[in-house]
Specification:
Helices cover 76% and strands 0% of the residues. By secondary structure, it is an all-alpha fold. Helix 4 runs antiparallel to helix 5. The chain is globular.
Length: 329
């Protein structure tokens, strides 16, 4: 790792910590540094909690960072495994599949626990991605066309979700709030599962990093160098699908972070996965944290879904990528 790349990773981590700290003071209600210090002091000495700070902003900031990191890590793995820079969890149907199963669970079993919601999202993400891989194995599309296949499958699954919302209009309030891709109403109870799963899967993915670099040389070359291609591919894809689905089960369908973060990571550190994976996670965390902070302050007290802002940024960038790689079609 060169000094420049090490500095960039440290800079991204520092910037994330600074933004997380600064986001505490941003919102509809003004909270000064002095009041924040008094609140923290009171909590550790008397157990008194300030609702806005402890039950709203701090858990929301942590969730934004972890969910963004999960989506960034998932995007880096998907792009590395299928060697397609246009791939991402949302464009490959993972988010839409997770959203469909989670919506069905919310409608038909509204009292379901967070763990059950996460399991349903993971199953939906795996099924959707399996469909796309089966279509890719059958049609053998170019990278750009594979992305279009993913968009088509995502659109189909989203239409199924909309069908459920239309058929069960009395039960859609919670589902609609969740589907817009927002961190509103999320709290401490959402953090343990997502954070613990992310930490475990990140280290497993990092352990596979050098193998992903070898796989980038091609399946035949990797096999000749001793890499077990199929188990590696399945393991990495399973990690990507599970971590993205869990993020979706908590924050809803946030678009384009899984596409943007790995590209920015490659621009900053090159093509080695032991650098791409942590940097993509950091950039994903930064993007979602900035989007959520902007969403809850831009038109305060009205709050926009963070997914709207990421789509505003990611949509034009995806069109730019399609035009840049027009030779692949």
């Amino acid at each position: 790792m060169t000094i420049f790349i090490r500095h960039r990773i440290i800079t991204a981590l520092t910037l994330l910590l600074v933004l997380m700290f600064a986001s505490i003071f941003v919102g509809t209600s003004d909270i000064s540094i002095g009041k924040t210090w008094q609140t923290i002091y009171a909590y550790f000495h008397t157990g008194t909690q300030d609702f806005i700070l402890w039950q709203h902003r701090i858990p929301r900031i942590i969730l934004a960072a972890v969910a963004g990191a999960a989506l960034g890590l998932s995007g880096a793995l998907v792009q590395g495994i299928i060697r397609n820079p246009l791939a991402s969890p949302d464009l490959m149907g993972i988010s839409a599949g997770a959203g469909l199963c989670a919506t069905a669970l919310i409608i038909f079993l509204p009292a379901a626990s967070l763990w059950l919601l996460a399991a349903a999202s993971a199953i939906g993400g795996i099924l959707a991605f399996t469909i796309i891989l089966a279509l890719a194995a059958w049609a053998k599309p170019t990278p750009a066309r594979l992305a279009l296949v993913g968009i088509a499958v995502s659109a189909f699954l989203s239409s199924c979700t909309n069908f459920l919302l239309v058929m069960y209009p009395l039960d859609i309030n919670v589902a609609m709030l969740w589907l817009t891709g927002s961190l509103w109403g999320r709290g401490w109870q959402h953090i343990p599962l997502l954070l613990s799963t992310f930490i475990i899967l990140f280290f497993i993915a990092y352990y596979l990093a050098w193998r992903l670099d070898v796989l980038g040389l091609g399946d035949d070359v990797a096999a000749h160098l001793g890499i077990r291609v199929t188990p590696l591919r399945l393991t990495a894809l399973l990690i990507a699908v599970i971590i993205a689905s869990l993020a979706v089960s908590v924050v809803g369908t946030i678009s384009f972070i899984g596409l943007l973060a790995p590209h920015m990571a490659r621009l900053l550190c090159g093509h080695k996965h032991r650098l791409i994976l942590p940097l993509a996670a950091l950039i994903g965390a930064l993007v979602l944290l900035v989007a959520d902070t902007t969403a809850r302050t831009l038109f305060a007290p009205i709050e926009l879904p963070a997914g709207v802002l990421t789509a505003v940024i990611g949509g034009p960038y995806f069109i730019y990528l399609l035009s840049r790689y027009r030779g692949w079609t």
